[in-house]
Amino acid sequence: MEIEIYADLVCPWCYIGKHRLEQALASYGGEVTVRYRPFQLDPSPVAEPLPLVRAMAAKFGGPERARQMFDHVTAVAAGDGLRLDFDRAVIANTFDAHRLVAYATDHGRAGEMVEALYRAHFTQGVDLGSREALAAVAGGIGLDAADARRFLDSDERTADVTAGLATARELGITGVPMFVLAGKYAVSGAQEAQTLLAALAEVEQREAAAN
To answer: Would you say 148 and 107 are in contact if contact means Cβ atoms under 8 Å apart?
Structure first.
């Protein structure tokens, strides 16, 4: 079964959803192929990597409201064994980060790259809009950092990421994570692992019956 994950690399619920899917897959007996699809919560250019806390306070009605949101998702993530440090995170346009995932996919390292990018953003304060920083993340998982930087400075996979973002819009995806199972069954949000496992089992049954 193919599982497509539409997600953004600065989305905390996507980070949580990825781990919950991995928990579900650990209990699932069927064969799956996971493919990471690009989505941007905010495609706007980012002039400088401002602290996320400050940016979200301006967007969501003040620092108190932003802090409540951060505290809630931090607590949920902690329950899943993940650490989020919003005080270190900076805002970034993730287009090049999605290109780097495509680069890692070509090297058979997509899952590791996605995990490393989430960790870089949410725990290390790395600017995912910086090509230098992205190349360093690639080097951190064992890829050639210099080659990754060469790739990022080219226009390779730019058209592919642009097309992937367009596909998400055509599918009507407005929130992530979105899991598409077997090309036609959608599960939205960072569902609990047991919910995802049940969805996998149901899709497997439906596909078997259809064949």
So the answer is: no
Q: Please, what is the average pLDDT of the chain?
A: 96
Pairwise CA distance, residues 205 & 174, whole Å: 28
Q: Do residues 63 and 31 lie in contact, with contact meaning Cβ atoms separated by under 8 Å?
A: no
Cα 87 to Cα 1, 14, 64, 109, distances in angstroms: 39, 19, 14, 29
Residue 209 pLDDT > 90: yes
Q: How far is CA 59 from CA 4, 55, 65, 99, in A?
A: 30, 6, 10, 27
CB 59 within 8 A of CB 30: no
Q: Is 198 exposed, middle or buried (0-12, 13-18, 19+ CB in 10 A)?
A: middle
Average pLDDT of the residues in 138-153: 98
Q: Which residue has the tokens 């409540």?
A: 68
Cβ partners under 8 Å of residue 60, min gap 6: 66, 69
CA atoms of 14 and 7, how far apart (whole Å): 6
- Count Cα atoms within 13 angstroms, Cβ side, for 121: 25
pTM for this predicted structure: 0.96
Helix, coil or strand: residue 4: strand
Tokens describing residue 183: 């090309």
User: How many residues make up the chain in this entry?
Assistant: 211
